[in-house]
Design a protein that fits this description.
This protein has 2 domains: 4-42 and 198-262, 3-Layer(aba) Sandwich (Rossmann fold), CATH 3.40.50; 76-181, 3-Layer(aba) Sandwich (Rossmann fold), CATH 3.40.50.1000. It is 39% helix and 20% strand. The protein has helices spanning 28-37, 53-62, 75-86, 98-106, 129-140, 164-175, 187-197, 211-221, 235-239, 253-262, and strands at 9-13, 19-20, 23-24, 42-46, 72-74, 91-95, 110-111, 118-121, 145-147, 153-156, 159-162, 180-181, 204-208, 224-228, 248-250. α1 packs parallel to α10, α3 (75-86) crosses α7 (187-197) and α5 (129-140) packs across α6. It binds magnesium ion (MG).
Amino acid sequence: MRTLEQIKAFMLDMDGTFYVDEKLMPHAADLLVELNRRRLPYIFLTNNSSARATDFQQRLKKLGIEVEQRRILTSAEATIRYLRLQTKFNKVFLLGTKALEQEFVEAEFELTADHPDCVVLGFDKTLTYEKLTTACFLIADGLPYIATHPDDTCITAKGLIPDIGSFMAAIYRVTKRWPKVIGKPMPEMVEAALERVGATADQTAMVGDQLDTDMTMAKNNGLFGVLLLSGETSRERFESQSEIEPNLVFDHIGQLYEHLVAKN
Ligand SMILES: [Mg+2]
């Protein structure tokens, strides 16, 4: 049985974990200070591929948290890493925001609807019927099809909005194909994050509020799972399921901080 004391690196979810509704959770900032003091590397992970790591860096800065850009890994970055390491694709038909398009262009992909090598589906908040139609034609033709992450919905102050999984479902109804998925909870996201923190899976904790992404990722990839009940998972929901047993469960990240400090 691993304990928190054996953990050498931390992967941190952002929304519902580190902050909720643009407010930092108690001791969230203290936790980073403590990890720095102990020289334990950490990285923030987000499945939101509609914005860039620098945008999340700014969001954290507004909350008073300064972190280097390399400490934020988006599912878009993990997807680009996958495409570069595992495929020879250069021409991409991309469904994405301007920010995602720019990220792919900077990574030297050619964005085109004319004979692309693959279709990449991102969290496209600028999706049009025309883009969706073009994607369906290409996917129905059998082109490799990759999605940056699997989330069905994204939570906002007004309620749930359609995320990439909802687009996938629409495309499936037309083409009968599902994509290869990259972000949390898939191993490609874990590999990209482990590369940055310089640790192995068994030395690393995943701290997050979602069972189906954060804790499934921990379970499937041999990470130490720390579930926080401050976001999408209520205690009732957690207790009514039996498939996922995180290594530790806390009400919020402040309790993780207190646990860490109490042990040393
Ligand atoms: Mg979350």
